[in-house]
Amino acid sequence: MRYAILGTGVVGRTVAARLDSLGHEVVIGTRDPGTTLARAEYAAWQEAHPRVSLADFPEAARQGDTLVNATGGKVSVAALTEADAAHLDGKILIDIANPLDFSKGFPPSLDPVDTDSLGELIQRTFPQLRVVKTLNTMNCEIMVDPARVKGEHTVFLSGEDADAKKAVHGLLSSFGWPDRSILDLGGIETARGTEMLLPIWLRLMGALGHSEFNFHIQGA
Amino acid sequence: MRYAILGTGVVGRTVAARLDSLGHEVVIGTRDPGTTLARAEYAAWQEAHPRVSLADFPEAARQGDTLVNATGGKVSVAALTEADAAHLDGKILIDIANPLDFSKGFPPSLDPVDTDSLGELIQRTFPQLRVVKTLNTMNCEIMVDPARVKGEHTVFLSGEDADAKKAVHGLLSSFGWPDRSILDLGGIETARGTEMLLPIWLRLMGALGHSEFNFHIQGA
Lengths: 220, 220
Description:
Two copies of one chain form a homodimer.
Chain A: E1 2-6, H1 10-21, E2 25-30, H2 33-37, H3 40-48, E3 53-56, H4 57-63, E4 66-69, H5 76-83, E5 92-95, E6 100-101, E7 109-110, H6 118-125, E8 130-134, H7 140-144, E9 155-159, H8 162-175, E10 182-186, H9 191-195, H10 198-208, E11 214-218
Parallel strand pairs in A: 1-2, 1-4, 2-3, 4-5, 5-8, 9-10
Antiparallel strand pairs in A: 6-7, 8-9
């Protein structure tokens, strides 16, 4: 399977490295590869992960069988628009982003929120994609290595396409998520619920002083 | 300790019955006691709980040493305004309500949300109260009997007044909450986080087909 990860931040790189270590082909998509490679942090990471390639959004989307949205939530639609509709048709998009809005300071608010969500916005804007919202409710190290948190904890799935959710479930299994920890909430509308976990996630990080925790639904 | 529970719905009655069973004096506050007693459901409950009294909002607030806000979130400020500022001075208000807005159908949205919360709105509107937001993230049976859900699960505290949070912590202990399950998030601003759990709580109830679950913060 060839994965295209949209977004060059720590979340995208962490997922890319994990997919690479599992033997998948991985291309990371960015607006301008030259600018990305000029960032010392990215260049160092690229050197440590020579099998992962870097391309602009349309080329990355063209190459990927499955796409992962790891861009900032506020620019996700722009990135996918740039990726070119012809390269999205019928593909699964795993949306792990959150629409955090830092314009009013920290902690960020969400936009959209409550009566809409980023997951829905992407699905609505790109109906040719099969959007599955997942993994957006924890730090990226835990996404790809759930054993980092001791005890049972939960990852959520939201999406309209049952086959796409089944495929993403399989990918989560390969990351180490037990079946009993993968909770299908229903359609993409339920992404409102998981995105709205971010405000308490941020305040928990503040109260606990670390981000090595996750939500567990006890009694599910 | 004498508790005044504002609100005659199932949440208020469940908390009132538990406080009564623990030997506290309990008065339930409502807009018009005559109208409340004319409701067959309430009258039957009242007959089963003869030690719990019913009064209008100002009289209930006058009698209570500690207040519990179990009104609908959209009418909480109106109920407290009716309760009369003179009866609130210096008292702890345990806010277990959520600002659910059913005007757009089900599932409800929240108002206020994200950049404000009901907990903050009440604290801001009634600075003479010491507001502690808690228990609003689970069904009311679990609030007063956490052993209903097997395994570890979490109750959150938000509030500005350390002594008030300590007193509420003690009340939660008497309900059966172990110390390790009571998680102090910080100031009343953190109520934004717990109120924003409601959207996923409602969707979990839909996906699971029951409400006998609770959030647990694994790794806290």
